[in-house]
Amino acid sequence: METVFEYTRGMLPLVSTYCPGCTHGIAHRLIMEVLDEKGDLGNTIGVAPVGCSIIAHQYMNVDMCEAAHGRAPAVATAIHRVHPEACVFTYQGDGDMASIGTAEIVHAAHRGEKFSAFFINNAIYGMTGGQMAPTSLIGQKTTTSIYGRSEAVSGKPLRMAELIATVEGAVYVERVSLDSPAHVRKAKKAVEKAFSVQEQRLGFSFVEMLSTCPTNWGLDSVASLGWIRDNMIPYYPLGVFREVE
Fold first, then answer.
1. Which residues make Cβ contacts (< 8 Å) with residue 80, sequence separation at least 6?
2. Do residues 190 and 207 touch, judged by C-beta distance below 8 A?
3. Fewest Cβ atoms nearer than 10 Å: which of 58, 86, 95, 183?
4. For residue 194, how many other CB atoms are within 10 A of its CB?
5. Is 15 helix (H, G, I), strand (E, B) or coil?
């Protein structure tokens, strides 16, 4: 009998504790599947900070390191400089990267650090209580913007991919989405490209993934996928924002 599917060795065979409908699991799978296919599981070190990503080490079958909130890029910088032969990545949420750790990620890109950053953007603080994040959309209701985000009070949502693309040390920047099978396939190609850039030591690579947070959005699993398409993608357009050959 022909084998048509095998569970990637990059993911540990555990039951997920993420909320139903959360696409963190898809992001985990894509990154680990690519590393498995490249034969790099034994040569990879991942860094996950505070946030929903703090439990990533439970599922990813590679060496993992925890970092303080927002400080994953600094930790990844140190790891890669000590182990330049290793494949190093950060796995960060929007509250972590786009708020508490903005300086860390911008300066890692500025220095052209040769690791890959995967940015999970669900437009809200997930683990810490559903507060408004820098990426929360105008009018979006959160526990700290109960009437909806106001541009006059909080400014416009921060577009991280566009921001990082202005930094010369970043050689590959792309935004993808996890809302449909077609977009998931494109997301995997972006992960492959990010690791290829790192493998060739070309510079810093950055992949933003639009993700769901059904619990804090107050939606069911299916509706949350539609919310990405109807609300997030129009403001956070998909595509490559920087690619230096």
1. 86, 88, 113, 114, 115
2. yes
3. 58
4. 24
5. coil
* In contact, 198 and 189? CB cutoff 8 Å: no
Q: Quick one: three-class SS letters along 49-107?
A: CCCHHHHHHHCECCEEEECCCCCHHHHHHHHHHHCCCCEEEEEEEHHHHHHHCHHHHHH
Residue 155 CB neighbours (<10 A) = 11
Per DSSP, the three-state class of 226 is helix
pLDDT reported for residue 172: 98
CA 21 to chain centre: 17
Distance CA 228, CA 176 (A): 11
Q: Which fold has domain 24-243?
A: Rossmann fold (3.40.50)
Is pLDDT at 53 greater than 80 in this prediction?
yes
List the beta bridge partners of residue 153: none
Q: Which of 158, 134, 184 is nearest to 31 (CA)?
A: 184
Mean pLDDT of 106-132: 95
Residue 151 tokens read as 């541009």
What is the chain's length?
Answer: 245
DSSP 244: -
Give the separation between CA 44 and CA 53, rounded to whole angstroms: 17
CB 198 within 8 A of CB 87: yes
The answer to whether 91 and 31 are in contact (CB under 8 A) is yes
As a whole-number percent, the residues of the chain with pLDDT over 70 amount to 100
Residue in 124, 133, 31, 115 with CA at minimum distance from that of residue 73: 115
Beta strand pairing status for 63-66 and 116-121?
unpaired
